[in-house]
Amino acid sequence: MPTASFDTHFEALPSNQPTGDEIRDEILKNPGFGKHFTDHMAHIRWTVDADWHGHQVRPYGPLTLDPAASVLHYGQEIFEGIKAYRHADGSIWTFRPEKNAERFRRSARRLALPELSDEDFIGSLKALLAQDHSWVPTPASASDECSLYLRPFMIASEAFLGVRPAHEVDYYVIASPAAAYFKGGIEPVSIWLSSHYKRAAPGGTGFAKCGGNYAASLAAQKEAAANDCSQVAFLDAAENKWIEELGGMNLFFVFKDGRLVTPRLTDTILEGVTRNSVLTLAKDEGLTPEERPISIDEWREGAASGEITEVFACGTAAVITPVGELVSEEERIRLTAGGNNEVAKRIRTKLLDLQYGRSEDKYGWLTQLA
Ligand code: COI
Predict the structure, then answer these.
(1) Atom of ligand 1 nearest to the CA of 316
(2) Which residues in this protein are found as N6-(pyridoxal phosphate)lysine (predicted)?
(3) Comparison of pLDDT for 70 and 142, the residue scoring more
(4) Atom 8 of ligand 1: nearest residue by CA position
């Protein structure tokens, strides 16, 4: 059941040099992740005196920014990640956009940026898709997770070097055709446990989707890559004990008695839309979801005893990806039980079937974009 439709009130300024059909089709055959961009972008301007105005969809291209723009100096920036899926009848849908819109406002409040309404957030996705619908790939099979990844973001563009919330802000949406986030698709990934670096601390910005959190994770990500790991797991800053998240993905632990445990949300963890959806879908699968603190000791002991049978990461970009091992300077934590990641695969299939319109949208999670 689609949610409320939002009329788009965006002025369309179509590109006079759109990508040719053949080139686009070639890109869509093997898009990778985040490498190619569509022909247009949505834009809305905010100023302290005129609020949000100037809604446009215009040709994709470099931004003109004053070198003194506050985003370049103080990182006043937030973003979102959401996907557009092509259904078998050619129509294009997105998944729970009101959750992203709500989180975007939460992030905006924390970064002292102006809040954007559902109407403008969802309207901007629709307006962009009205121009760039041919960039949404068609899945080749039920396990194909190709989509058009949408990246709404907001930056402080006022040219002013004093440290205070900017009086001029710009919101954009760009779009990038995407295949699986990880090179190996749904092959289990190795995760690096960061010993030296923390991603977030109480009272900080961990729950907000802001560039600064991702920038702070990059040194640890570099360590991960040097140790053949594709992501980093972060522990809490206060006790260095509690599992938080992977920086761009949430974590789930499957227990052999059917419990599905994920770290309870605090202000140091980003509330993932996929995380929230997995908690609901898990119940339909007969699992018992639990949101509670889970320690690194419990991971280590549960993996060794066979109590924990699977670990998986989830996020908009990653969908659901099994975690094969946790690696640190001191140890390698591997699961002794399980190994086939059956629960992760089942929930993944359920989620993808819903997103691609192959199963009933019984929670009303889909919104038509085009
Ligand atoms: C997303 O899943 O949308 C993110 O922003 C995470 C990032 C690793 C791409």
Answers:
(1) 2
(2) 209
(3) 70
(4) 248
End-to-end distance of the chain based on CA atoms, in angstroms? 15
Q: Please tell me the residue having the least CA distance from ligand 1 atom 5.
A: 81
Does the pLDDT of residue 195 top 80, yes or no?
A: yes
Q: Residue 267's closest CA among 333, 334, 173, 200?
A: 200
Residues 223 and 141 in one domain: no
Of 103, 249, 269, the one to substitute when testing ligand 1's pocket (max ligand atoms within 8 A of C-beta) is 249
Amino acid letter, residue 150 = L
Question: In this predicted structure, what is the pLDDT of residue 106?
Answer: 98
Secondary structure of residue 85 in the 3-state scheme? strand
Q: Indicate whether 337 pLDDT > 80.
A: no
Domain end point (choices 146, 179, 212) = 179
Q: How far apart are CA 168 and CA 162, in angstroms?
A: 14
Backbone angles phi, psi at 4, to 5 degrees: -50, 140
Give the atom of ligand 1 at the shortest distance from the alpha carbon of 33: 9
- Within-domain flag for 360: no
Question: Which residue range forms the structural domain that includes residue 133?
Answer: 4-179
Q: How confident is the model at residue 338 (pLDDT cuts 50, 70, 90)?
A: low
Co-location of 138 and 278 in the same domain: no
Quote the longest CA-to-CA distance of the chain: 62
- Determine how many CB atoms are found less than 10 A away from the CB of residue 283: 11
- Are 332 and 250 within one domain? yes
Q: pLDDT tens digits, residue range 2-16?
A: 344 445 689 999 999
- Supply the CATH number for residue 322's domain: 3.20.10.10
